[in-house]
Amino acid sequence: MEMAMYQGYLFILLMFIGGVILIDLGIFTKTQTNHLFKWGVATDCEVVKVEDEVLPGGQHVEHPYIKFMTTDKGWISGELAVDPTNRHHFVPGERMHIIYNQQDPNEVKIDKMPGRTWLPTFLLVAGFGLMLAAAHQIIVLH
Where does the sequence pass through the membrane (predicted)? Predict the structure, then answer.
């Protein structure tokens, strides 16, 4: 009986820690994205090539490579980091609006990116949900 009680408390502790981690990730993601969209520079880029990666299980992930001109007329080119859940199909020659960090032009995000708002919100809600579930379990055990 005593072992089951300790396992119950361990489960509650893990739920609580998981909630804290999700909340931290949500805050970090929101802060990072907000900073770039508040202080970043907007410009257009061109997709120069797209590489397709097939993950185990058959899921396809696109790796678009872009080029754009900075405010000081320098060209930046490289892979655009996109969320693996992104459903946009990139096409070579496609132009899109981006925002980049002027101090680090390799930090680039697609403007009007849907995941920009829902991902941090999801992480925060899931984290608070886990913490509430842990609190509920403590009440039930007592």
Answer: 6-28, 118-139
